[in-house]
Amino acid sequence: MxxxxxxxxxxxxxxxxxxxxxxxxVAFDDIAPQAPVHTLIVPKTHYDSMSSDxxxxxxxxxxxxxxxxxxxxxxxxxxxxxxxxxxxxxxQTVQHLHVHVLGGKRMxxxxxxxxx
Length: 116
Ligand code: AMP
Ligand code: ZN
Known about the structure:
binds zinc ion
């Protein structure tokens, strides 16, 4: 997708702080981090979001990258949270499937915050 920002990052047309890359995915730091470590992993092929059409290979590639990113970011021992915001109710703001890896500070138990 020509004008998709995460496709642009994947192509190297938009600057990002890359953390990890292989043939299938690229990981880069979130531009507005919500934790001391906040890295995004995106497939190099554009998919809007998770769906039953998503190839298992893409799903596998995304999640296979998670421990690599965690290790590079020094989160292996301390732990981390993995989030995928999928669609409107989850407030997905960039319509290119991505996995958030968050860590570097102890988090609360709550996983969801609802709008008023
Ligand atoms: P989501 O709300 O799950 O769609 O998350 C989108 C994330 O992308 C947000 O955390 C944004 O801060 C992040 N983001 C948007 N533009 C960029 C960019 N150019 N580089 C890195 N992260 C970005
Ligand atoms: Zn895209």
